[in-house]
Amino acid sequence: KLNSFPKNFLWGASISAYQAEGGTNEDEKLASIIDKYIHPEGVASFEVASDFYHNYKEDIKLFAELGLKAFRFSIAWTRIMTFDNKKVNEKGIDFYHNIIDECIKYGIEPIVTMYHFDLPYYLEEKGGWLNRQTIDYFLEYAQVLFQEYGGKINYWLTINEQNTMILHPGAIGLPVSGNLPTKKELFQMNHHVLLAQAKVFKIYHELSATGNIGPAINLTAMYQATAAPEDAIAAHNWETLRGWSFLDVAVRGSYNYLFEKYLQDRELYPTIEKNDFKTLAAGKPDFIAINYYSTATIAASKNDGTDESARAGDQQIMLGEEGVYRAAENPYVDKTPYGWVVDASGLRLTLRKLYDRYELPILITENGYGAPDKMDSNGEIHDIERIDYLRKHIRAIQEALTDGVQVLGYLPWSAIDVVSTHQGFNKRYGFIYVDRTDTDLKELARVKKDSFYWYKKVISQNGLD
Ligand code: BGP
């Protein structure tokens, strides 16, 4: 028998600033690296996105109608700080106050991501996260966030998907130079991001006795491709290097032994200054947020130069690494139209493993089904595959809760259609359709999909449909 969802379970949905807002040149917003990325031809840019910047009031009203108890959005650093963090941009500050106040008006818990891929471009020009000074910039920005919004926000997420940024930097767009950082540089950047995060955890806890803060990692359980022992080792490599290595530093304050060895063997070990480990150990999260979409199936490296190109479907973030592991197909699971593995039991397993390891409450900040939804001649969108996907994942969460895992809430991606990280506007995840295509903005009208009515019922019945 399954337990019911807790009464205060945070039924929600998510977006990020750059994928939803648009208005990239308005109100003295600075350019972010995302604004400067090179987009493939015919794929929507982020300049208008879903026009949430102008429509937020109407959109949040729709979220209230949907019955959301929580709404996760990110704050664009480039909207609220002026060049060099010199002062705050009041227009940007007000914009996010307005979003938060609208949420609170409807009894929706606002959940804030502080940084969702969109570093200010002027910082990138100074070396980005490779430059240790970026840590101080991030701290200043964080302090402004806590001072401005601290009294209204109970859940903060520091960095969205640090592991995606470091392990698969190309997945979120190409820098203007066209050159991605080297691996050595990436792990140095990783170290700096971890330091910034630990410092932010610490200053937040000095300021707030009641609020919660945590990292948001892309986490998926893995399966070994066969019972061959070398596949088991490869799968463990993958799970450690792709997931735990980031969270172990965030939660325990230290690099785990496999990660250290991996970095040392490849001469990728970052420069670590004298007090860094003290800094890392001094900042602790209150909970862990995960973005979960799929499981990965992992086989031993063939070591013949093909590990990195061997793909399981189109899932760009499931690449292999020479000598460490390679991706394999899983014949037991379905895939989305974009080739992403659909595996609800994998969510239950991921939650168990995460809880086993850290025993911290878990917030699911993304999960969803990307598909090219079409409006029919009656102006309706019958996204039944999405409903099926979400239904199964909600059931898996209920199973995990029944197992004894502490799950605080579920915030699927995405509240409303947004621009996909690298696949434009045709790849939709929302409960609310935005009437535009990659190339034609139309009127940007909002249309409730079938999943909207379905999720509304689920929320009103606390997890049942
Ligand atoms: C996550 C990101 C989101 C979102 C989602 C779906 O990695 O945090 O920003 O975009 O993936 O990915 P995509 O848009 O590539 O389908």
From TrEMBL:
Alphabetical UniProt keywords: Glycosidase, Hydrolase
Residues forming coiled coils: none
A Gene Ontology BP annotation from the UniProt entry: carbohydrate catabolic process
Gene Ontology CC annotation, any one: cytosol
Domain of life: Bacteria
Single Gene Ontology MF annotation: beta-glucosidase activity
Any Pfam family matching the protein: Glyco_hydro_1
Family membership noted in the UniProt record: Belongs to the glycosyl hydrolase 1 family.
UniProt-listed PANTHER family: 6-PHOSPHO-BETA-GLUCOSIDASE ASCB-RELATED (PTHR10353:SF122), GLYCOSYL HYDROLASE (PTHR10353)
Name of the protein in question: 6-phospho-beta-glucosidase
Provenance organism: Enterococcus phoeniculicola ATCC BAA-412
